[in-house]
From TrEMBL:
Name of the protein described by the UniProt record: 4Fe-4S ferredoxin-type domain-containing protein
Pfam family, one: Fer4_4
Keywords, comma-separated and alphabetical: 4Fe-4S, Cell membrane, Iron, Iron-sulfur, Membrane, Metal-binding, NAD, Quinone, Repeat, Translocase, Ubiquinone
InterPro entries associated with the record: 4Fe4S_Fe-S-bd, 4Fe4S_Fe_S_CS, NADH_quinone_OxRdtase_chainI
Keyword Transcription regulation tagged: no
Length: 113
């Protein structure tokens, strides 16, 4: 019997890159610490400046540079999927293929799409 595929099955986790705000909640809540995120901030040209106690401040937003899940550490518990407030992670249904070495089990944005 083949394992079920599609949404809701515990296989690989898929990153929906356009939903990710680099908030780090998934990485912080992961009990195995298998998620690594790098990002930088950019000024949002479409948002009006905000008045603060120190004067006007331009609004910024995070831009995702790197998102990696190390499948050799992942427990497939789904906490990252459940905790993401922006629905940027979901179960893909496909299982992670075996690899020749541990470095091949660290999947970045390209493999997680």
């Amino acid at each position: 019997m083949n394992p079920p595929t599609g949404s809701g099955t515990h296989g690989k986790i898929r990153l929906i890159e356009e939903n990710c705000t680099s908030c780090m909640i998934c990485a912080r809540e992961c009990p195995a610490w298998c998620i690594q995120i790098d990002s930088h901030t950019e000024v949002d040209p479409n948002a009006p400046a905000q008045l603060t106690g120190r004067g006007m401040r331009e609004r910024t937003h995070n831009v995702l540079d790197r998102f990696v899940i190390d499948w050799s550490l992942c427990m497939y518990c789904g906490i990252c999927v459940e905790e993401c407030p922006f629905d940027a992670l979901e179960w893909n249904g496909a299982h992670v293929a075996p690899a020749a070495d541990l470095t091949a089990l660290a999947h970045g944005i390209g493999e997680l799409r």
